[in-house]
Amino acid sequence: MPGSKLDHGNVQGGKQWGRLKEEQNVRLTEINEQVVANGDYKEYDPEELEEKLVAFKDQFMEYDLDNSDDLDVTDVSKMMEKLGKPKNIIEVRKIIAEVDTNNSGTIGYNEFLQMMLGKKSSVLKLILMFEEKGKGCAKPDGIAPKRSLEEMLNKPNI
């Protein structure tokens, strides 16, 4: 299983972490460009595919907590917790096994893309798709506007 490239003994590792994330961003962007150039997913419009790839790259980087370019058991467990769907280790390993095509015990970026763009359905794909749909609903910010009692009584509930 790949390990973190981060020196955990360095207490001032913010700059190092930022550099590692930027390097990962470059690597994953190159993979995205290869996917578009290869025409692997012809069922998608090229512009739509590029938008999806950028979103998937950002999502993958968000959940790759150790910057290893793989989502391991820890990463997927934290992902499930963050999405409000906590799973035990056995369930997480089953989720990874559904997606892991090279039997590494982790989900690499190419496997992640195959899962998200391919026709095969998996538990992780469904959870991530519903998470994206939930983000689409904008919640109001700030203080509610002042209204009179008459306005509130006459306005139907929405």
Automatic annotation (TrEMBL):
<dbReference type="Pfam" id="PF21008">
    <property type="entry name" value="AIF-1"/>
</dbReference>
<dbReference type="InterPro" id="IPR018247">
    <property type="entry name" value="EF_Hand_1_Ca_BS"/>
</dbReference>
<dbReference type="GO" id="GO:0005509">
    <property type="term" value="F:calcium ion binding"/>
</dbReference>
<dbReference type="GO" id="GO:0005884">
    <property type="term" value="C:actin filament"/>
</dbReference>
<dbReference type="InterPro" id="IPR002048">
    <property type="entry name" value="EF_hand_dom"/>
</dbReference>
<dbReference type="InterPro" id="IPR011992">
    <property type="entry name" value="EF-hand-dom_pair"/>
</dbReference>
<protein>
    <submittedName>
        <fullName>Allograft inflammatory factor 1</fullName>
    </submittedName>
</protein>
<keyword id="KW-0106">Calcium</keyword>
<dbReference type="InterPro" id="IPR042433">
    <property type="entry name" value="AIF1/AIF1L"/>
</dbReference>
<dbReference type="InterPro" id="IPR049025">
    <property type="entry name" value="AIF-1_EF_pair"/>
</dbReference>
<feature type="domain" description="EF-hand">
    <location>
        <begin position="87"/>
        <end position="122"/>
    </location>
</feature>
<dbReference type="GO" id="GO:0051015">
    <property type="term" value="F:actin filament binding"/>
</dbReference>
<dbReference type="GO" id="GO:0032587">
    <property type="term" value="C:ruffle membrane"/>
</dbReference>
<keyword id="KW-0479">Metal-binding</keyword>
<dbReference type="GO" id="GO:0097178">
    <property type="term" value="P:ruffle assembly"/>
</dbReference>
<keyword id="KW-0677">Repeat</keyword>
<dbReference type="GO" id="GO:0051017">
    <property type="term" value="P:actin filament bundle assembly"/>
</dbReference>
<feature type="domain" description="EF-hand">
    <location>
        <begin position="51"/>
        <end position="86"/>
    </location>
</feature>
